[in-house]
Amino acid sequence: MNFFCIADKNSSIGFKFSGIQTREVTTKPEAHEAFKTALAAPGIGIIVITEKAASLIREEVDNIAFEQELPLILEVPSRDSSKSIKSVTESLRRMIGIGV
Q1: pTM for the complete prediction?
Q2: CATH number at residue 39
Q3: Which residues share a beta bridge with 44?
Q4: Residue 21: helix, strand or coil by DSSP?
Q5: Does residue 62 have a pLDDT over 60?
Q6: What residues contact residue 78 under an 8 Å CB cut-off, 6+ apart?
């Protein structure tokens, strides 16, 4: 199972350095195309998407996240976000509905 990351420019660097296939997006069409590519790619089990990128295609992200088992959509704060996530575990728990 592989990862695919869709991120705004400021947030993409860390994902690229970690070896995760990453697409930088700045516009709605770019985000839509990257999301479509991630969904169609064989072996992608988790799509990591930054909040800025997800906000460009919010309806698409929510539809897939709630309608399909795989791939898992993991929305993470953008690098310059004021939101605070304590851990990936906390984020996953919130996504699948386990109380935190």
Answers
A1: 0.79
A2: 3.40.50.10580
A3: 2
A4: strand
A5: yes
A6: 7, 8, 10, 11, 50, 51, 52, 53
